[in-house]
Every structure is written in structure tokens, then in C-alpha cells.
Design brief:
It contains 15 helices and 15 strands. With 409 residues, it is an alpha/beta fold. The protein has 3 domains: 93 residues, Orthogonal Bundle (Fumarate Reductase Iron-sulfur Protein, Chain B, domain 2), CATH 1.10.1060; 163 residues, FAD/NAD(P)-binding domain (3-Layer(bba) Sandwich); 131 residues, FAD/NAD(P)-binding domain (3-Layer(bba) Sandwich), CATH 3.50.50. It has a 5-stranded parallel beta sheet with strand order 3-2-1-4-15. A 5-stranded parallel beta sheet has the order 6-13-7-8-9. A hairpin with a 5-residue loop joins strand 11 and strand 12. Helix 3 packs antiparallel against helix 4, helix 3 packs across helix 6 and helix 12 packs parallel to helix 13. It is globular, with a radius of gyration of 23 Å. The protein starts with a helix and ends with a helix. The protein binds flavin-adenine dinucleotide and iron/sulfur cluster. Iron/sulfur cluster binds next to helix 5 and helix 6.
Length: 409
Amino acid sequence: MSTLKSEAERCLKCKVPGCSKGCPVSTPIPQVLTLFLEGKLKQAGELLFNNNPLSAVTSIVCPHDKNCKGHCILNRKGEPVSFYRVEEYISSFFIETYQPPQIRKISKKIGVVGAGPAGITISIILALKGYSITLFDAMDGIGGALRYGIPEFRLSKGILEVYKKILDTLEVKFRPNTRIGTNISAEDMFLDGYDAIAICTGTSQPNRFGLLGETLGHVHFAIDYLKSPDAYKLGRKVVIIGAGNVAIDAARTAIRKEHSEVTILNYKAPEDMRAYKSEVEMAIIDGVKFLHQYQAVRIADKFVRCVRVNKSVAEDGAVNFTEDFQSSLEVSADSVIIAIGQGPGADVNSVGNTKVTQRGLLEVDEFGSTSQKGVFAAGDIVTGPKTVIEAVALAKKAAVKIEEYCQNL
Ligand SMILES: Cc1cc2nc3c(=O)[nH]c(=O)nc-3n(C[C@H](O)[C@H](O)[C@H](O)COP(=O)(O)OP(=O)(O)OC[C@H]3O[C@@H](n4cnc5c(N)ncnc54)[C@H](O)[C@@H]3O)c2cc1C
Ligand code: SF4
């Protein structure tokens, strides 16, 4: 593997850098690499942090091949620049040695509900501008899906402790184990003097399949399993229904935690899988087996019954999948994990009283304003399940709008 310096030196410093265009927060990649090569590590870190407070995380978990790396001009000739490797080094150095600038306090109070990537980003940006921030989360630590979703082997939880220290340094008050919308609502918060509220509650409720057997004792939802894998006894044979990124994380965790034999049932063909190619590759290396083009139709105590799915491509290019109910197969299973996506759950609007979209997500304008005065939203609760960097991008827009709103109060 090339050294970080030689990787940085390969950048052509394009006038219109494709890599920055491919990044949802337009990271100024050539400028960062120039500062890095000039030995200006702190300035490089500052540039990254001010543009994306979570760059130490996104440099690790972003789908690089689709974003920055996938848009590098060197793709045309051979090997693109792996900027994220340099970004991770600069950003982790910066957050570990973080010193806040002088901050002039403003007498405005913001409540941020949900301490995932969107909530952390809004809290850091507005705390740096002098706002008084209280960050609430239903769970006991910050991070959202970074803590209770992405497994430790992909993202060390230690990094969240570093971010907690930064939030403490910026005097962000954190209220753990506080689910807004049960006994406290947005209305109560306005009564207590909050000027604006940001809802960043994500989408952590698993979608159900609607199959017979879904309530049996050996059946679990992937998103729940990943919250605390040590609480589960899965046994030797684990079947996972669904083949997205969450399914892959659950499979790789089960292999690590219990040395289970894991089979992923993929409804579609290998080339149609939603999971990142790099993650699928790693899952295969870890020993995960895939059964492509099979649909689960029933979960029983010791097996999952599935049927073959045929793929056809119409003349106009439309791809169709149809189950062949004559071709049944039983796959043995001590445990079954369902990973067919997630949503906000039925209580999406319990925090405030805002309009909801047909998909059950919070309705916002392009800047994150909801239909309720003083209430803003960002992250997966607005878009449905996406990526960390997309949550950061929306949170940045919402922070600008919250500031504008507070200045006009
Ligand atoms: C298993 C898994 C793997 C993933 N892997 C990747 C990856 O490799 N790369 C990538 O870029 N993205 C990945 N993602 C997606 C990414 O983590 C999310 O897009 C991102 O975390 C969304 O951020 P958010 O702040 O909107 O929501 P979340 O991270 O979901 O945070 C929401 C927070 O709100 C809290 N909350 C909810 N309701 C309330 C309430 N009423 N009151 C108080 N608090 C509340 C929750 O406890 C949670 O902490 C993954 C997601 C999962 C689940
Ligand atoms: S934030 Fe993500 S997409 Fe943007 S430069 Fe960093 S790794 Fe690439």
C-alpha cells in the first residue's frame, strides 16, 4: 500500500475537481492535500472539520467508490486517489487534539433531538456560533447508527468518545435516555424557552416482512441485533433474509461473535444487490454464503422455506423478478435475521406536530424547515435510510436555516 504522502502527491489538483463534486459536502480535496503536503496538518484538519465536523467518521464509512474516489479523474487512466485515507489521518489527529476557538455566546437556546450524525453536526456547528445547545437522545450514548448500527470492526466506538469530549468542550448539554415525544414534547421545550428545535431522530424501526413465523423466538430483526449482539444466542446456522448493507453487517457480526455458518437469502441477482460491492467482497472473505434469487416464504422452527426467483429483462431494459412457487427449498436455520430495511416507525411525529410525507418521513423544504414554526429536521428522518455523509449534508443546510430563523426572532 502506498504511503499517505505518496498518495497525496498523486493528486493532479484539477481546476474543477471531480472528487469534490462526488462528495455530498463538496470537501475541498485538492486544498486539503496541498496543506497536508506543506506540513500544515492543523490547517488541513480545520478546513475539513469546518466543512464536515464528522470527517473523521465519514473518511472511514463513506461509500468512497461511489463518492470522492469514484469521481477522481485518474479513474480514466488507472488508479484513482484514495483521498479518504489521508482525510482519516488528518481528521483523527485534529479531533484528538481539538482546541475550540474563541466563541462569543448568543442568548438563544436550541434543542436537538437525536444524537446521530445529523444531530451531532447541527450541535457542533451551532455551538461554535455561540448558541446554547441541548442534545437529547433516547439511548445512553451519542452516535445513533454509528454506535448502535455499524459494527465495531468497521468503526471503532472509541471515536464517539472523542466526539463526546468535543461536545463537552463546546458546552453542549447531553440528555441521554430521554425519548422526546413520550413525556416531553416540542411544545414543552418551547415553553421552557427553546428558540428552535431540530429533529434528527433517524429511522431505526425495522420493517416487518409479513411472513408466517416472524414472531417466533429464534427470529430477530437485523437492526435490533446490531444494537447489542452480545444479548443474542444465535446458534450454529443463521439465515439472513435481505441483502442490503445492514444484512451484511449482521452476517459479519454473527460470524465474529458466534462463529455461526451464515447464509444470506438474496431475492435478486448478485449484480442487483443493494449492498456496497466492497462490503459484499469482505463478507465473502469472512465466510458468509449467499443464496441468490431466492425468496423466503415461510419461517419455521428449524428452517426457512424459500422459492426460486426468476429474473427477466424486457425489451425496454426493465428488469423483473418473479417467484416460481413450484421450486421450493428448505434452508436449515437455528436463527433467522430479517434485514429488509427500516423506517421511522409509527410515532414519527411524536416530537413535534409537523407534516409527514407519504413514506411516513418528516416533510421539509430544501433547507430542512418543517411545516411547524421553529421546528427543523435533518438526516434519515427526512430522506429515509441513506448515508452518514448525506445526513451531515442535510444537517449543514438545517443549521444555516436555524441560524437565519433565530436571527429574525
Ligand atoms: C447497520 C448500519 C450500517 C450502516 N453503515 C453505513 C456505512 O457504512 N456508511 C454510511 O455512510 N452509512 C451507513 N449507515 C447509515 C447511516 O448510519 C445513517 O444514514 C446515519 O446514521 C443517519 O444519521 P441520523 O442522524 O439521521 O440518524 P441516526 O444515526 O439513526 O440517529 C438518530 C438518533 O435519534 C435518536 N432518537 C430517535 N427517536 C428519538 C426520540 N423520540 N427522542 C430522542 N432521541 C431519539 C436515536 O436513538 C438515534 O440515536 C448504516 C446504518 C446502519 C443501521
Ligand atoms: S466525506 Fe466521504 S465522500 Fe467526502 S471526501 Fe470524505 S470520504 Fe469522500
